[in-house]
Each structure stands twice: as structure tokens, then as C-alpha cells.
């Protein structure tokens, strides 16, 4: 289409959709955000944009950053359009678009991260936020302790001025701030981790202690790492999403589609100040943990209930999984009888009301959220989202039949191929290891649970181990649908 408007500061007034009404040239940075993916732009960047539209938070603009070579592709796309993003809301009843402008720059991605360290050392930066995925915090999946032996961590401990990780860059910047007489920034995790702020704190301070114990003490005393719960489904961008932006007359190399729902609950612990995000819908709370538990177990855990069986059966999206009667019945039964049993209510929402809400959100056919994306990094997502529920159910001597089936389906997915014979592409940092063990389960299912890195001592929990063994043997013998039918028919 020749009449498309290419996103830039110069073309904003030509747009027919909502767009920044503030003077972007007058914005000054206050936040560095590491990991500028779709979720960040649909969520945290949007809340800040809303404040800026109200002529507030003009000194809190975002500088984007990345620490992996592939982040350079996103940097190039966003800088070419002045870091503007088209957000496309896909409500089942309508589609709307808005261009947001709260991000004003994207740092160069270099080995040793000198530009990132320099930016975070600037006292004007008061918050360093991140979305680096659940598995990116160098934590042991069983003990939840800091993984000091990881090669990346060992590198950063011995080369603190030229680190390879985001956390090493944070430590280096905090060292420079301390030496210059400046205070620390707030570290704000926006990843789906229970106690994400506490985990970020653990990683940063533990890494600092390996090379500079006095700095670690200073960070521990002065810096803050608030816990937060974040929620908005923002699928990956592909040809369909690019076409949607063109439908609004916009040429955007990196548009973001998202659902109408957003939620952000944050612990109000910011050592260097913060934007008033609560004025545009965020919630500051002293009990983030309750919100986190509800969301991580019912939504994120629910994603794992769906995605693995969806992959095995070659069902492409989460919405299509919810449209499948047996998969939808699996979801409802596991949520009702097991997951929701471990969740407490929060103000305005009971666990079962939240299950109903998640069913509605997951069923939105306009959100093209692929089973492959949701199934990615199962070794982190199952240990973080599903196994804590399972342990609580075992401790309370309640049913784990459904969760055992969910884990059996994950094992079957890792064995591949799909039931239609197509290949499941590698989809986990530990994929070769997982596939090797999954093949063993054809004759010895318990081999899967003996992966101590994932399950710890859970293979010794007889109610779980017995149910897992039975489900996986049935799956290998008669297929996934037979297992789903047997489970959903159980009283």
C-alpha cells in the first residue's frame, strides 16, 4: 500500500489512531529496561505512556537495552521508527490501535556491555527494569538458590568490568555509582517469577559478593528490588500482526498485538523514586505474593496444562486448545480440583472467579498465542508454575492426578514426534537432555521424575509417582486423547 505512514516523530500528526500528544523531544530518561520484547511494550511501556499523555512522568522515559546478539535486530527496527510502537488491542468484539512513545532510545549491544553500564551508572536512571524470561536469573530450579557455578556467572565474577550478563552489567553500574557518591537504582523484575524482586535481589547481590563483598553489602543496604505481578497476553509478532498494523495505515516493523486485559501489582519499594503508575491502573500493594500466586499458578500454570498436549496433537494456538472439548475439560478439571485449591482470594477476586476469567481470556480466538511459544522453556516453566502446586497438594494430601497427567504430557512432548508424525522442533535450553530421558520413558516412565535438577525428591512421592507412571504408560499405549478422556471422566 503506497499510502502507508511510516512511524516516526515527524509523522505522528498524520496518524488516524491515538498517538503521543506530548512533546517527545522534551522527555528525559529515568528507566533503563533490559529485554524490549512484546510484553514490555504492551505492558510497562504502555502504563508509562498513559502517564505521559496526562502530562506526567516526563522525566521517566525508557531507554531500551539488550544483552544478547539477537536483541540487535529489535534495536535496529525500533531506532528506525524513533522507538515508537503500534499497540493493537484484539478484543473479540473489536480491534483498536494506539501508538505509544514512552521509549526514547535503545542502547548499542556490545560485548562487555559498556553502553549499558554507562547508562545505568547515570544518576538520572532511577529504575533498571527487565523482562529476561523466567530461566534467565541463574537460579537452581530445585533449591532456588543462586547458581554461582554457571559459566556466565564465573565469567562475570572474574571480569566484573566486562560482564556477559545483564546482572553483571547491573553490578558494574552500581559499583560506578557508589564510587561516584551516587545512590543505587531500583531493580524491577517484570518476569513471571514468584517473588521476582527477591530473586533479582538474590542474583545481583550474590554476584556482587563474588568479586566485591563491600559493594554487595552496600547494595543489600541501599538498593531496593520490589516484587511485582505482571499480566497481559502479548503474542509474538509475525506476518499477520504486521498486516494488522497496515490495516490501520501504519508501516511498523515491530507492532504488538495484545488482549484487552492488563494487570500490574507492585510492591511500593523504590529507593530512588518512581512514576505514579497507580494513577493509570497499576496497583501498589504490600501483599504482592497473593496476587502473584493466583496469576502464576492459574494463568501461567494453566498455560502449561494446555501447551504440551497442544503440541503433541499439532494444535497451533492456545485458543484452539480451549476450543478442543477434551483439552478444555482437562483444563477445567485440573484448575478446579487441584490448582485453585492452593490459591487464596485477593481483593475483588476468588480463585474460581479467576479461573473463569482465564478461560475467557485463553479462548479469545483473536489472540494468536502459539502453543510452541507457551511450551518454550518447559524446564523453567514447569518447575516454576506447576511443581509448587503439586508439592502443596501432596503436603495437604489432596489429589495430584491431573498434575501428574500434565507432567506426563510434558514428558511425551519432549520425546516427540507429534502424534501426526511431524517433528517437534527444539524448544528448551536443555532440549537434548530432555529428549534423551523422554525416550527412556517408553519402557520406564519413572526415569523422567528422576531428573533431580527438575523434580528433586518428587519421584519418591508415591501418589504422584504412581499416577505419573500410569498416565504416561497409557499415553504411550493408546495416545493422548485416550488419557484425556480417562482423566476427564473420572469422578
TrEMBL record:
Domain Mannitol dehydrogenase C-terminal: start-end pairs: 287-470
Highest taxon, organism lineage: Bacteria
Annotated keywords: Oxidoreductase
Molecular function in Gene Ontology: oxidoreductase activity, acting on the CH-OH group of donors, NAD or NADP as acceptor
SUPFAM superfamilies the UniProt entry points to: 6-phosphogluconate dehydrogenase C-terminal domain-like (SSF48179), NAD(P)-binding Rossmann-fold domains (SSF51735)
All residue ranges annotated as the Mannitol dehydrogenase N-terminal domain in the record: 30-278
InterPro entries reported in the protein's UniProt record: 6-PGluconate_DH-like_C_sf, 6PGD_dom2, Mannitol_DH, Mannitol_DH/Oxidoreductase, Mannitol_DH_C, Mannitol_DH_N, NAD(P)-bd_dom_sf
Protein name: Mannitol 2-dehydrogenase
Organism from which the protein derives: Roseovarius lutimaris
